[in-house]
């Protein structure tokens, strides 16, 4: 199983973290964004988006971090419905998918774009991104005030999809201080057996 | 089954279209954005995002269009794995989910935001949105040049998730003329038994 990877990418980190938590062996192939290795014809043939992560496992190539999370969760224990990171039950799948969409839309356009603007000097609208980020963080804080995990009362890929850009948001100029319930959720994730960090995570106290 | 609905919303239309294609009976409850009915405490208790659509079916409340698509597909025929709009197979689920993420991120931040800016005079950055939209439409055009459907060689919820804001992008100031493969895909969707239109769809030739 090979992951085309950028160390600073929160989306790639989702896959490294999930693999570590599942005990899956994943070979990381670093991609240089400076050399535009994600825009070569060979790379675009794997991923029309021209982005990392990409996962290749035998004949299967997947080009979206949330799709890869589902695939990895199923690879480990797709015969069991309990204590799984995904689920065989359609209503459970819908519950988890709410947070995958939330991650792809609000967490991306808000938290990830704010970080890209501040940390990597990308030419985005920081005020617009931070406004989306604050709204997203408020939703998380309220939900985590009376839930230990985002979905199904257990750790699922919903948590793995949302955690990185929530935890990294301080690199986008947003303080984590007003979000105590979210920070307690960070601590629960960081205490999971097999947890691995990335640069910027765990977030400083 | 009750859908909290806004007629002009592409995300709500995904649910109306899927319900019609599946032959499911769905009662639409119109929500007035002008009266901020999506920001009342009662509505926010159903959906922390404060957005439409929301689906309520007996004890189940779902607040994301893609989560609702999975739920509806499973409600109709979650015992069968073939000719289904979703799948019981985890690799198939990952394939479809790639396009759900693509819809939540690129189609939203590009096509939907461009439309909201032009058609509904929302204060977003039209140039930035159109740039994301053009990149997304290029990905769709290339993929649909040698695929009839987005995933699994059959109509799935991937198509239903992406079609509305692709078809409506002309309302965001982007011509559909350069995308013949995409327009043929529109025609295939619009020929599916049970297809229902919305204002702006099918797109004018």
Layout of helices and strands:
Two copies of one chain form a homodimer.
Chain A: E1 2-5, H1 10-22, E2 27-30, H2 41-46, E3 54-57, E4 60-62, H3 65-77, H4 90-119, H5 126-145, H6 157-167, H7 180-190
What features would you describe in this structure?
The structure is a homodimer of 205-residue chains. In chain A, a hairpin with a 2-residue loop joins strand 3 and strand 4. The relative contact order of chain A is 0.14. Chain A is an alpha+beta fold. Residues 78-82 of chain A have low confidence and may be disordered. Chain A has a 4-stranded mixed sheet with strand order 2-1-3-4, covered by helices on one side. Chain A has helices at residues 10-22, 41-46, 65-77, 90-119, 126-145, 157-167, 180-190, and strands spanning 2-5, 27-30, 54-57, 60-62. Chain A has 2 domains: 2-77, Glutaredoxin; 90-190, Up-down Bundle (Glutathione S-transferase Yfyf (Class Pi), Chain A, domain 2), CATH 1.20.1050.10. Chains A and B meet through helix 3, helix 4 and helix 5 of A and helix 3, helix 4 and helix 5 of B.
CATH architecture of the largest domain in chain A: Up-down Bundle
What's the overall geometry of chain A?
globular
Oligomeric state of shown chains: homodimer
- CATH T-level topology of the largest domain in chain A: Glutathione S-transferase Yfyf (Class Pi), Chain A, domain 2
**Strand runs of chain A, count:** 4
Largest chain-chain contact? A-B, 39 and 39 residues
Major sheet summary line of chain A: 4 strands, mixed
The rounded distance between the terminal residues' Cα atoms of chain A is 35 Å
What pattern of helices and strands is seen along the backbone of chain A? EHEHEEHHHHH
Number of helical regions of chain A: 7
Tell me roughly what share of residues is in helical segments of chain A. Answer: 40-55%
Mean pLDDT of chain A: 95
What proportion of the residues of chain A form beta strands (DSSP E)?
A: 5-15%
Sheet with the most strands: spatial strand order of chain A: 2-1-3-4
| Total of domains of chain A | 2
The CATH class of the largest domain in chain A turns out to be Mainly Alpha
Assign the structural class of chain A, choosing from mainly alpha, mainly beta, alpha/beta, alpha+beta, or little secondary structure: alpha+beta
Radius of gyration of chain A: 16 Å
